[in-house]
Design goal:
Order of helices and strands: HHH
Shape: flat
Distance between the termini: 71 Å
Oligomer: single chain
Number of strands: 0
Helix content: 55-70%
Largest sheet: none
Length: 87
């Protein structure tokens, strides 16, 4: 890979990593759900996995193409010397 190729995709790496973490949570939830549904039909458990993989792919697409939420930092307010009301 050339350095220009990596530099062109470098801004997407945090979004892809974020989608991967969220996708792992979705897959862990699907694993727990299929464990709870172990006495149900295989079609039901299969539907859970299909839904989880679809959700993971959607998270990836939305993580790349969707808007980024920016949380502003708190503004530091100086604390008054005394907490008693002024006279």
């Amino acid at each position: 890979m050339s350095p220009t190729f990596f530099e062109g995709w470098q801004h997407l790496l945090p979004r892809i990593a974020d989608a991967a973490v969220r996708g792992a949570v979705v897959l862990l939830a699907a694993l727990a759900l299929t464990h709870l549904l172990r006495r149900r039909s295989a079609a039901t458990r299969h539907a859970v996995w299909v839904g989880a993989i679809t959700a993971q792919l959607l998270l990836l697409v939305l993580g790349i193409a969707g808007p980024r939420w920016r949380v502003s930092h708190r503004v530091r307010v100086p604390i008054r010397e005394s907490i008693a009301p002024p006279r």
